[in-house]
Amino acid sequence: MSFKMDHKHQCGPARIPELSEACHPVGTEEAEAIAERLYGTRGSATRFETEKDDTFLLDCAAQGKFVLKIAHPSERIVELDFQVALTRHLEQRAPDLPIPRTLRDVDGADLPVVTTSDGERRVVRLITFLLGTPLDRTFCTAPQRERIGEILAKLRHSMADFTHPADGRAVAWDVTHLLDLSDLLSFIPRGDRRTWTVRALERFAEVKPKLDLCRRQVLHNDFNTSNLVVDHANPQFLTGVIDFGDAVRTAVAVDVSTALMNQMPKTFDHGNRRDLFDEPRDVLRGYLRHADLTDEEIRLIPFLSMGRLAVRALLTCWRAEIFPENSRYILRNTEAGWGHLEWFHSISTAQISDLLTR
How far apart are CA 125 and CA 204, in angstroms? Predict the structure, then answer.
């Protein structure tokens, strides 16, 4: 294997307890009691499937709907404060952007702490609910994908001057740290799938020095289709950008590559498609109307999209083994990614570099 490990900001299993350590789930009745005690909201809670925390849709009838998030016990309060501060910054900089608002509790606290019935100290947030359908449950047209790119660009500009003590935290899903996850290769099934993943790591290692020189700022870092809320009847189409849990200071190219990777087709016929970027190019087209990318960034983005596929393969295969009861949710996008990694494996490094330049 030709790549070298970079331990400067290690994101291996020992460093991401919120992804590797179990916690006691909070039930719906307890969630309803917590919401009423902290926020004075009385409603019916329905659990959302999530990666690491307990999240509920809270239907308060005439008061409306809210999202109640009860953080994993290992999540640091300074990192949760980073997310709240970032969304408040966006409220000021770009009030027209469709992002959720974090509400204060009855005592004026942004991040109240509760001790659950299982004795765990958990940080709580109540967030406004954005109406619409998650994009992963519907479809979008080329102009609508361009709209997604436009909003991503506007978010970038609105975050450009934001700073916070926790903005440089290491996030496992930030492809910048892909090589630090190489010790998870043993969780990838042997055979072609492991071969494709190893080759993705090798190619990423080749471009990593260029990535390290790219422009950086705080960015959303997770513009996937489950985090985009849409309404086909609304002229704006994109009615919500949710989940700032992976926001971090990273390369501008990384943020764009993640958005493009998440517009790749769920199924891929190697015989009848030109390449994986047919739909993602629409997002890039909309993005470039409002934000610039250098030639170097444009050449790096396909490698970073490939790297994000490898991050997903490594993290989800590992977590599905340690949390088999949640494996269906954890692996919900992994199967499609194997076909994508196979396609990257089938073309040359020069072809990858040129994917977005023609």
Answer: 37
Q: What confidence tens digit (pLDDT) does each residue in 89-145 have?
A: 999 999 999 999 999 999 999 999 999 999 999 999 999 999 999 999 999 999 999
Cα angle 169, 201, 183; round to 5: 65
Q: Contact at 8 Å (CB) between 221 and 171?
A: yes
Q: Give residue 3's pLDDT.
A: 56
Over the stretch 50-61, which tens digit does the pLDDT of each residue have? 888 999 999 999
Are the C-beta atoms of 323 and 22 separated by less than 8 Å?
yes
Distance of alpha carbon 87 from its chain centroid, rounded? 15
For residue range 149-204, list pLDDT tens digits in order: 999 999 999 999 999 999 999 999 999 999 999 999 999 999 999 999 999 999 99
Task: List b or e across 184-219, with b for residues whose CB sees 16 or more CB atoms inside 10 angstroms.
Answer: bbebbeeeebbebbbebbebbbebbeebeebebbbb
Q: Give the C-alpha separation, 300 to 298, whole Å.
A: 5
Q: What mean pLDDT comes out for the span 221-250?
A: 96
Q: Which long-range contacts (CB under 8 A, 24 or more apart) does 20-29 make?
A: 20/319, 20/322, 21/72, 21/73, 21/74, 22/323, 23/72, 23/73, 23/74, 23/120, 24/116, 24/118, 24/120, 25/54, 26/54, 26/70, 26/116, 26/122, 28/56
Helix runs in 49-104, H state only: 77-93
- Nearest-angstrom CA–CA distance, 261 and 335: 14
The model's pTM: 0.93
Any idea what DSSP says for residue 290? T
* Residue whose pair of structure tokens reads 């704006």 in the numeric block: 236
Q: Using alpha carbons, select from 135, 107, 86 the residue that is nearest to residue 245.
A: 86
Contact 305, 260 (CB under 8 A): yes
